[in-house]
Batch of 2 targets.
Target 1
Amino acid sequence: MKIQYKLTKPIVLPAKARVYSFLLSLFLFVGSLVISYTYRPYIYSHHIYDLHLADSFSDLFAVPAMAFFQIATNKDFGKYTIGFHIMIICIFLILYEFLISAITDVYDMIAVIVSGVFTWLILRLAMKKYKHKLEKL
């Protein structure tokens, strides 16, 4: 079985869709910062066990934020499948966790993989459902 990572007919997103993708990426990035600076200190100060969500929120938001940023800024985004792009983002974030991060946390890597799967599902469903509307933008 051959895995398809390159599209036979590239998807060209209109400028309006790219702007929306950039704004959504920015919203996810800012949301991640807000949660990190408000939720994490609250959880730590009250000694609440939240299944490591306070530590992993930034990783949960990182994959969709990077995916939407890549959609907005990369002209070659439509040449490859959504799964290929998200796989590259997940590999980058896991390598970052091993090589650059001071603390290697397994829960962060799990959060990256879970976020990657959900981002892939949501983008794949959105592209199927709204493909005809994207062409009209």
Target 2
Amino acid sequence: MTMVDPSRPFRVCWLGTSIMEHRQAHSPRLIDPANPAQVGDTVVIEEHRSLGYVHHVHLALQLAYPHVAFDCDNRGQGAPPPAISLPSPGPCQRTPGSISPSTGAASTTFGVPTSPAGWPRPSPSMSTPSTTPPPLPPWLCGHVALCVSETPVGPVAERETVDAMNRDLDRYNRAAAQRAATAGVPFVDVWTPFAELARTFARQRVRPAPTLWSDGVHLSDLGVALLAQQVEARLREYRIVDQLSADTATAPAE
């Protein structure tokens, strides 16, 4: 693997919905082992952070490529209104062999929406929009990217309602896979391993059984671990970081 100038980190841009965004409230008191908040304490939330499987993939990449500095740019958006279209990521755009002048960072885009803006994840109180994903945006085509599938919905409503939601999501995933193939973008199917593991957990006799969902839609710690495992494995399989490292090594000096 060609070494990368550590002064020019790779900015990895992630675009998606709340599954990718995974916002969490943060206070130093919540993570300070020497002074943990006690039961019943009032804690001041100082900021919100985007964590979840994107954060864990970032950690895995940093461990796998210790000589490359990674900058994780999580632009996931929870519940975007249907009128919003998928925006260009601006400084995250990458032309092969170039350095982004606005950031001084070798930039790429992988981690395309699990649900593009304009197609919110369905919920029991939401009518399901069209299951046809929009075309991949022009700034993405020709860039190094991955398209990550949707995950299924869990027990958020009666079984018939959930089954209908998942049929819509399955149709959406198939259409997204076709669009990705047309654009030459690798498609990461997280639906299949997610659904198989959810069925296995449901058969456990121990109660409460492990679950991949925190609320039937968003991911639990197990769901986060599974998606991080699947996405990081595909990044290694397609040797995306290695390709980009080689491109960066040959980029013209500023």
